[in-house]
UniProtKB/TrEMBL annotation:
Organism name: Acanthochromis polyacanthus (spiny chromis)
Family: Belongs to the TRAFAC class myosin-kinesin ATPase superfamily. Myosin family.
Keyword set includes Protease: no
InterPro entries, sorted: Kinesin_motor_dom_sf, Myosin_head_motor_dom-like, P-loop_NTPase
GO CC annotation, single: cytoplasm
Domain Myosin motor as annotated: residue spans: 63-258
Name the record gives this protein: Myosin motor domain-containing protein
PROSITE patterns assigned: MYOSIN_MOTOR
Family matches, as PANTHER family: MYOSIN (PTHR13140), UNCONVENTIONAL MYOSIN-VB (PTHR13140:SF356)
GO biological process, one term: actin filament organization
One family name in Pfam for this protein: Myosin_head
Keywords of the record: Actin-binding, ATP-binding, Motor protein, Myosin, Nucleotide-binding
């Protein structure tokens, strides 16, 4: 049971999420109606134990939705549960949240980035197919080449080891495939080949990521009037030297590069 201080109204059998120190969030039901003015809310966990404070659970029919904005209740436990169900039960690492693509790093190579997959997403509207980094890349390419003819940006963000560098490479692979030139493929090949060179110079091993980028990268890809890749520019920013000069291994301070 928990103590309420805000005068909320809750009803028996309402399905909720409650915080848990081990599993982060656990499923529960309200075991007794709560009426305004009462100071105690009774909860029942699925394993028959009691524990505190609730978040409303989504109906089962919505669990596993490929767009988080379709959920009735959008909060941390609902988001984590939906991502977990999609990842563990359906092996989907991508989920939309409106125009944002949420990606889970599977820490293994998946066979979902081949040329046949690129061709399947090329020309499709975002939302017509399953969430994918190629769908985001196609939307940017389509807005640039087919509709507005304006510069487009894709922001790749996340914590260390989330897969930002790899996601950016897959987006570049998409552009190199759909925007390649039939007469000269050397340009797009050079664009793709530039990433390992930059990684060799600017990446370092950390406790959370064996190949962690130690700087932000701004990659600018140029297209011709016929929307073929004609060149690329890569700039680095926010280089934190204090994070690449030293590395702690087995309690010993090892000097790195400066």
């Amino acid at each position: 049971m928990i103590v309420l201080t805000n005068g909320s109204c809750w009803f028996q059998f309402t399905r909720v999420w409650i915080p848990d120190p081990d599993e982060v969030w656990r499923a529960a039901e309200i075991s007794r109606d709560y009426k305004e003015g009462e100071s105690v809310l009774h909860l029942q966990l699925e394993d028959e134990t009691d524990n505190p404070l609730p978040f409303l659970r989504n109906p089962d029919i919505l669990v596993g939705e490929n767009d988080l904005t379709a959920l009735s209740y959008l909060h941390e436990p609902a988001v984590l549960h939906n991502l977990r169900v999609r990842f563990l039960e359906s092996n989907h690492i991508y989920t939309y949240c409106g125009i944002v693509l949420v990606a889970i790093n599977p820490y293994e190579q998946l066979q979902i980035y081949g040329e046949e997959v690129i061709n399947a997403y090329s020309g499709q509207n975002m939302g017509d197919m399953d969430p994918h980094i190629f769908a985001v890349a196609e939307e940017a390419y389509k807005q640039m080449a087919r509709y507005n003819e304006r510069n487009q940006s894709i922001i790749v963000s996340g914590e260390s080891g989330a897969g930002k560098t790899v996601s950016a490479k897959y987006a570049m692979r998409f552009f190199a495939t759909v925007g390649g030139s039939a007469n000269d493929t050397s340009v797009e090949e050079k664009v793709l080949a530039s990433s390992p060179i930059m990684e060799a110079i600017g990446n370092a091993k950390t406790t959370r990521n064996d190949n962690s980028s130690r700087f932000g990268k701004y990659i600018q890809i140029g297209f011709s009037r016929h929307y073929h890749i004609i060149g690329a520019n890569m700039r680095t920013y926010l280089l934190e030297k204090s994070r690449v000069v030293f590395q702690v291994i087995n309690n010993q301070l090892i000097s790195g590069w400066n």
